[in-house]
Amino acid sequence: MAEEMKKYRDRLRDNGLKVTEKRMTMIELFLSENRYLSAKEVQEKLYEKYPGLSYDTIYRNLYTLKEIDVLENTNLEGEMQFKISCTDHHHHHFICEECGNTKVIHYCPVETWQGELEGVEITSHKVELYGLCRECKSVA
């Protein structure tokens, strides 16, 4: 974990940002979760250590970390949510609509789609599949 945290400290510095204890704690939180978190969930999880941390400060830091590719985001149930960015290889996600856990999908259908879309050039994409994970499905 120390090696990984150094990588994120360096990323903050490389982008001209201060390495603060709060930012590093937020990054640690996301590293410990395998799911998307809302700003409210982040605030609740950091409350014990930082009871005065405002929602605005959390939201601002979430977007700052997203801009430098530490976090990625998606919209779940009409709310922006964030998770640690997966930048080591190209893949997509299955996201459980109940618990928010994510699973990696290694197959990418973009080449098939490119072949079906005559005359266009796909320059980027993001594929997310939603449903219930095994655990949540068995409870439903």
TrEMBL record:
<keyword id="KW-0238">DNA-binding</keyword>
<feature type="binding site">
    <location>
        <position position="111"/>
    </location>
    <ligand>
        <name>Fe cation</name>
    </ligand>
</feature>
<feature type="binding site">
    <location>
        <position position="136"/>
    </location>
    <ligand>
        <name>Zn(2+)</name>
    </ligand>
</feature>
<dbReference type="InterPro" id="IPR036390">
    <property type="entry name" value="WH_DNA-bd_sf"/>
</dbReference>
<dbReference type="GO" id="GO:0003700">
    <property type="term" value="F:DNA-binding transcription factor activity"/>
</dbReference>
<keyword id="KW-0479">Metal-binding</keyword>
<dbReference type="GO" id="GO:0000976">
    <property type="term" value="F:transcription cis-regulatory region binding"/>
</dbReference>
<protein>
    <submittedName>
        <fullName>Fur family transcriptional regulator, zinc uptake regulator</fullName>
    </submittedName>
</protein>
<dbReference type="Pfam" id="PF01475">
    <property type="entry name" value="FUR"/>
</dbReference>
<feature type="binding site">
    <location>
        <position position="96"/>
    </location>
    <ligand>
        <name>Zn(2+)</name>
    </ligand>
</feature>
<dbReference type="InterPro" id="IPR043135">
    <property type="entry name" value="Fur_C"/>
</dbReference>
<keyword id="KW-0678">Repressor</keyword>
<dbReference type="GO" id="GO:0005737">
    <property type="term" value="C:cytoplasm"/>
</dbReference>
<keyword id="KW-0804">Transcription</keyword>
<feature type="binding site">
    <location>
        <position position="133"/>
    </location>
    <ligand>
        <name>Zn(2+)</name>
    </ligand>
</feature>
<dbReference type="GO" id="GO:1900376">
    <property type="term" value="P:regulation of secondary metabolite biosynthetic process"/>
</dbReference>
<keyword id="KW-0862">Zinc</keyword>
<comment type="similarity">
    <text>Belongs to the Fur family.</text>
</comment>
<dbReference type="InterPro" id="IPR036388">
    <property type="entry name" value="WH-like_DNA-bd_sf"/>
</dbReference>
<feature type="binding site">
    <location>
        <position position="90"/>
    </location>
    <ligand>
        <name>Fe cation</name>
    </ligand>
</feature>
<dbReference type="InterPro" id="IPR002481">
    <property type="entry name" value="FUR"/>
</dbReference>
<feature type="binding site">
    <location>
        <position position="125"/>
    </location>
    <ligand>
        <name>Fe cation</name>
    </ligand>
</feature>
<keyword id="KW-0408">Iron</keyword>
<dbReference type="GO" id="GO:0008270">
    <property type="term" value="F:zinc ion binding"/>
</dbReference>
<keyword id="KW-0805">Transcription regulation</keyword>
<keyword id="KW-0963">Cytoplasm</keyword>
<dbReference type="GO" id="GO:0045892">
    <property type="term" value="P:negative regulation of DNA-templated transcription"/>
</dbReference>
<feature type="binding site">
    <location>
        <position position="99"/>
    </location>
    <ligand>
        <name>Zn(2+)</name>
    </ligand>
</feature>
